[in-house]
Amino acid sequence: xxxxxxxxxxxxxxxxxxxxxxxxxxxxxxxxxxxxxxxxxxxxxxxxxxxxxxxxxxxxxxxxxxxxxxxxxxxxxxxxxxxxxxxxxxxxxxxxxxxxxxxxxxxxxxxxxxxxxxxxxxxxxxxxxxxxxxxxxxxxxxxxxxxxxxxxxxxxxxxxxxxxxxxxxxxxxxxxxxxxxxxxxxxxxxxxxxxxxxxxxxxxxxxxxxxxxxxxxxxxxxxxxxxxxxxxxxxxxxxxxxxxxxxxxxxxxxxxxxxxxxxxxxxxxxxxxxxxxxxxxxxxxxxxxxxxxxxxxxxxxxxxxxxxxxxxxxxxxxxxxxxxxxxxxxxxxxxxxxxxxxxxxxxxxxxxxxxxxxxxxxxxxxxxxxxxxxxxxxxxxxxxxxxxxxxxxxxxxxxxxxxxxxxxxxxxxxxxxxxxxxxxxxxxxxxxxxxxxxxxxxxxxxxxxxxxxxxxxxxxxxxxxxxxxxxxxxxxxxxxxxxxxxxxxxxxxxxxxxxxxxxxxxxxxxxxxxxxxxxxxxxxxxxxxxxxxxxxxxxxxxxxxxxxxxxxxxxxxxxxxxxxxxxxxxxxxxxxxxxxxxxxxxxxxxxxxxxxxxxxxxxxxxxxxxxxxxxxxxxxxxxxxxxxxxxxxxxxxxxxxxxxxxxxxxxxxxxxxxxxxxxxxxxxxxxxxxxxxxxxxxxxxxxxxxxxxxxxxxx
Length: 699
What we know:
By secondary structure, the chain is mainly alpha-helical. It has helices at about 1-55, 60-65, 75-90, 115-130, 135-180, 225-230, 235-255, 265-320, 325-340, 350-375, 385-400, 420-435, 435-440, 460, 475-490, 505-515, 520-540, 545-560, 565-590, 610-615, 630-640, 645-660, and strands at about 70, 100-110, 195, 200, 670-685, 690-699.
């Protein structure tokens, strides 16, 4: 009995053990199936994604080393990926041990090559270019790149100085206008008016009333050249008043003449008094204009000082980017302008003293007006003529107090040599800014006029944010920008090496200009090259003491007749700018003829003369050696100055145009798939389980 009980227990234990082993085996089998299904799912998803990304454009890869999946439309990506994964879920002969069933594909993110402002396209280019041997090239090119980055700061300071110089010259123009109101010599905004080498006078002015005859000393005119301009226009007010006495004598004579007994007329006396009163009123008007002009000058000077303070802050903020010599030169120019605040710049007259004397004149004129008005309106008969005599004598006494002689201008700097206005000097530079292409290209008839069909290109299709360009001279970013610009130089044509077979021949110029016509792009690039060379030339010439003295001497010869220091300084500044600009035109002429130009010049490398600039005639003068940068290298500097996003998308445009010319009109970078991110949903093991596979992939 005990043996049977033992056997039963063994049987039970054996059954339990077998059940456990069987359960374990079933669990292991199911786990293996699940693991296999998940592995299978992972595999089919990866293969499906790789199948999707295998659709790259071989022509673009071969020509431009740009790798990207060609998708007709972004909306097709999800459907195509679904189909690839669905196809890869199938086993040969229809056998599917894991019963893996694709339920859906959901993409959270689709990245095209043009997304994020073309960053992925840029990275493709940089990745390819890193394999090149350009380390030594960038070491040679870094100084020019860093100097180019500083041109923005240099231009900012130069523009501030130019604005303040123009404000100062306008103040000087108003000071000259005071000369017209007070002394009576006609002026323009930049100097004295001359006809046939002679000064020209004006009709009504503060000093016109001459109380002691046409005596120049009496009215404070101490220079013959000024006095001669207006001497015939002075109004001898005491003589005119004495003439009124003659009218009184005539009245007495006529009244007592027997044939006209009882007849009394004072028309001549009244009209004479009215004429004198009119001259007084005109003088009062000019006096008021003079005082108002002084107030304007003071307000303008105060404004100039405020603006100069702001300019000083901008200058200080940019000082670290400029060389010591340039900083010193700009400091000297700004210090000259500071003299307007102290009155040192105004050598023609002392405004405060002038205002004081004009106010004195105003008081006397008011008394003169009242006295002469009394004459013009007085009651007169034969018995009161004696009293009127006394009134005329009182007027004469008042007029003799008119303090015109106390008003002093200083003519030491005036010269009646051959003059030229500031406007004329400013137009010298304008000659070189017009028709720039004709100035630098000898045979403009050979320039390509090819036109690109602006249709469906990436720069038009994509919306990208091309904000203000900020230079980043971080070594890595600088290197990447150098590599990108070098890529453009290696892969795209330009004016000196045109693509005769392309839709556009000047491809790099398009990347910089984005005009539809070759000629317009070349014009844009020439303009930018001249601007770049002008900035660099100006930074040199403003530090060259000899050239500054040469410009000052010529400005004095042209503008010394004004007698105003600020206008002469403005003339010097305009001549410096025009000279730097003319030299820039010559520089670009050299570049367009396959020559080289040093980025930072020295005295020996400066080729133009000031006389050439003033005569508006520049003939190409080549450098004495091959040192410097060529046209291609200057284009790379312009690319460095160009906004990154604009540069990227215009590069895409040229690629697309060239692919179109080679028979691939469908190729567009905005159709190139760069990366995806999403999830794929599966059922497996006869629908018993669901599994979500995450995926993320990019080139």
